[in-house]
Amino acid sequence: MIYSYLKIAFRNIWRHRLVSFITIFGLALGLAGSMFIFLWVYDELSFDRFNKLGERLYKVEEDQPYTNGVFHVGVTPWPSGPVWKEKIPEIENSCRVTETGSILLRKDEKVFNEEKVMAADTSFFNMFTYPLVQGNPRLVLREPLSIVLSEEMAGKYFGNEDAMGKNLQLNNSDVYRVTGIMKKMPANSTFTADFIIPFEYMKKSRWYSDQWANNSIATYILLAKGSKTDAVNDKLTKIAREHNPESNTRFVVFPYLRSHLHSYWGFGHPPGAIVYIWIFSSIALLVLIIACINFMNLSTARSASRAKETGLRKLNGAYKQDAVIQFFGESFLHAFAGMILAFAFVALLLGPFNNLSGKTFIASILIKPAFVLSIFLITVFTALLAGSYPAFVLSSFKPIDTLKSGMSGGTRGGLFRKITVVVQFSISIILILFTIVTYRQLKFMQSKSIGFDKENLIYVQIKGTMTESYPRIRQEYLNDPSVIVVTASTNPPQDIGSNSDNIWWEGKSPDQHTLVSMAGIDFDYVETMGIKMKSGRSFSRAFSVDIPHDSSGTFLINEQLEKLMGTEDAVGKVMKFGDTRGLIVGVMKDFNFQSLRSKVEPLALWIWPDKFFSYIFFRVRPGNLHKTLAGIETSWKRVMPLYPFDYHFIDQEIEKTYRVEERTGSLLKYFSVLAILIASIGLFGLATYTVEQRRRELGLRKVLGASGRSIIRLVSGEFMKLLLIASLISVPISLFMLHKYLSNYGYHINLDPMIFIIALLISTFVALIAISYQMITAINADPAKSLKYE
Description:
Blueprint: H1 2-15, H2 17-45, E1 57-66, E2 69-73, E3 76-77, H3 80-87, E4 91-99, E5 103-107, E6 110-114, E7 117-120, H4 124-127, E8 132-134, E9 146-150, H5 151-158, E10 167-170, E11 175-182, E12 195-198, E13 215-223, H6 229-243, E14 250-255, H7 259-262, E15 266-267, H8 274-303, H9 307-315, H10 320-357, H11 369-392, H12 399-405, H13 410-447, E16 457-461, H14 470-478, E17 483-489, E18 499-500, E19 503-505, E20 516-521, H15 525-529, E21 533-536, E22 555-558, H16 559-564, E23 574-577, E24 580-588, E25 603-607, E26 615-620, H17 625-639, E27 647-649, H18 650-657, H19 659-693, H20 695-703, H21 708-742, H22 753-780, H23 783-787
Parallel strand pairs: 7-12, 9-11, 20-25, 22-24
Antiparallel strand pairs: 1-2, 1-13, 1-14, 2-15, 3-13, 4-7, 4-13, 5-6, 5-10, 8-11, 9-12, 10-11, 16-26, 16-27, 17-26, 18-20, 19-23, 21-24, 22-25, 23-24
Helix pairs in contact: 1-2, 1-10, 2-8, 2-10, 2-19, 3-6, 8-11, 8-13, 8-19, 9-12, 10-11, 13-19, 13-21, 13-22, 14-17, 19-20, 19-22, 21-22
C-alpha cells in the first residue's frame, strides 16, 4: 500500500511538475531565509554563554542623576574593583578590564601596530572561561611585565618557535615576557583581544587616576551563590560614597550574560541590541508564514483537479482514511523536499551570508541537533497545515457529487485564500518600505554635513614615546607643502565621549546639574577640522591667555552649551571646568562630535598639555593623495624611525560608525526580495486556482465573444483589488512603525509620499508578473476543451 501511495504521489508531482516545483521551491526559499536568521539570532543569543561562571558574573555600572534625567554608564572608577572585593563579602572575585588602545609590538625585525590589546587584573582567567594552551591561569598575569597572547599571534611573532618565556617589546619601551598562550577568543565573546597584559600597565598611563570621581574602566565581579543583587548595589554605592562624598551616583550590577544584548548607555532606558533580535526574528517568522501560506494555497490549487480522482477511488472501495493518508503523505513529501533544498541553499550561500552579517558561521553548524530539530519541527508543522485542507475536505466529499460537478472550493475556502494573499502582500509592502527607509537613512547619515570638514583629514594615534616627540612632528609637517595644518587632541572629532558635570559659569543655578562633553585640544584644532565659529575667536598662540598655566586657561564652547547657559553671547564670560578656570573666547557652530543617532550635546574645549594628547591630525591638500601620503610617510620615518606610519582617514572612520545600519539595510533588502518573491509564488498559486475554478466560465465567455483584453481585466481585476486592500492595510501600519524606528535617530529623513508610492509600484509590478502566466493561459485556452463535458 505504501508503494502505491508513493507511486501515485510521484506520478502527481510529475504530472503537475511546474506547480510542484514552484511549491517546493517557494517553501525552500522561506525555510532557507528563516534558517539564515535563526543562525544569526542563535549566535547573538549565545554570546558569552561559554563562560562556566557566567550566571554569577556581573558588570558594575552607574546611574548618575542630573537635572535632565538619569545618565547610565558602564564604566567605574579606576581603583574601585579591589576595594569592593575586600569590603563586600558577597563578592568572591573582581576583575578590572580595559582596552589599551593601539600598541606597537616588536620582536626583532617584526614590528606591528596591534589594536586588540586588553589590560586586566590577575583574576581574569579565573573568572572568565578563555582556555590557555600553555601557562597557569592563576599566575600568567602576576608579573607586571607579562603578556598572554593567542595561538595565532604566537605564530605571527615567533613562527614555529615555542613562544613561552620569549620577549616582546611594547611601544619601544618595556620588554614583556610571554607567560601564557590562549586559544583564540570565540567570535561570540564580548572580549575580542589577541593580547592581554596586566592591569598594572594602565597605572603608567597618563589617564590613570586614583580618584573615585574618574570613571573610565569596566569592573566585573563574581558573586557568591544566593547573593541578593539589591543588597550588593547598596554596598557598592555606600563604599563609593565613602571615597567620594560629594557624589550622588548609584552603582548597580548588571548580569554579564545579558550585557551583549541588553546593555545601554546614556539617558533613558533604551532596549539595547535586543531590538535587532526582535526585528529579525519577526522577519523570519513573517517570511516563514508567507512560505507556509503559499504551500497551502498551491496544495489547494492542485487539489482542484483531483476531486474526481478522489471520487473514483472511493467508488472503487477506498476508505476516507486512505485518502487522508494519501494527501498527507504527498504534503510531507513536498515539505521534506523543500527542507532538503533549503539546507542546500543555506550551505551554498553561507559564505556570502557571513560577509553580509559580519558573522563566521561554518557548515558544521547546520548539523547541530538543536538546529536540525528546529527545522524538522517547522517542516512537519508546515506539512500538517498544508495537507489538512485536501486531506480532510476532499476526502469528505461524496463520490457522486465530485464526479458530477468536480470540486468547488466554496465561499469560505475562496475567502481564506484571498485573505492569505492580502496578508502576504501586506507583509511584503512593509518590508519593502523598511528597506527603502533604512537605505535612505543610511545615505542621509553618510552624506549629511556634520559641521566639520571630514575630507582630506588623516590622523595617527599617539603611543609610547611619541608624546614627547609631538612638537618635533608638528614642526616637521608644517614645513611640508602637502600638509596644510597640524594639530592634536585627546579624542577624534567624531568620537568625543568624555563628559562631566563638574562645570560652572557665571549665572549658573546651584541646583542645575548637567552633563557637558569635553576634550583637550592643541592650537589650530578648529582650523584643522574646518569648524566654523558663531562668535568670538579660536585659540591662538598670539594670545598668552590661551596658553595653559597651572589652573588657568580659556575655553571654546558650542552653541548647545551657550543655550544651556541661557545667553545669546557667551564670549567673555567666566567659566570653570574641572580644575581649569578662564574666559570663554569663542562659540563654535554645532558640529556632530558623536554619531547622528544622537543630537548634538553641550561641548567645551580647551588647550591641554601635550602629554595628554592621543591623536595627531593632518589636514592635507586635495589632489594626488597617493603621492601626498608617500611624502608624509617619508617625513614620518625621518622623525619617528621606530614607529610605523599607521594612519587613518576620518571620513572612513565615520562610515564605520554606521556599519550596523549598513548591515541591517543589506539584510532587510535581501529578505524583502525574498518575501515578495515568495508572496509572488503565492499569488501565482491563487491565480492557478482561480483560472482552474473558472475554466468553464472563461471558456463560455470566449465562445460568447469576450476579447483577450476583457479576460485579462476579469482575471487581474480580482488580484488588483486584493493588492489595493493590502496597500490600505500596510501603509498605515508601516507609517506608525517607521515613525517609531526613525525616532531612535537624533537626525533622520522625512517620510515623504514618494517612499510609499515606490513601494506600492514595486509590489504592483511584481504582482502583475506573478499572474501574467495564468492570464496568458486563460486567453489561449481552447474553449471547446473547457465546455466539452457540459
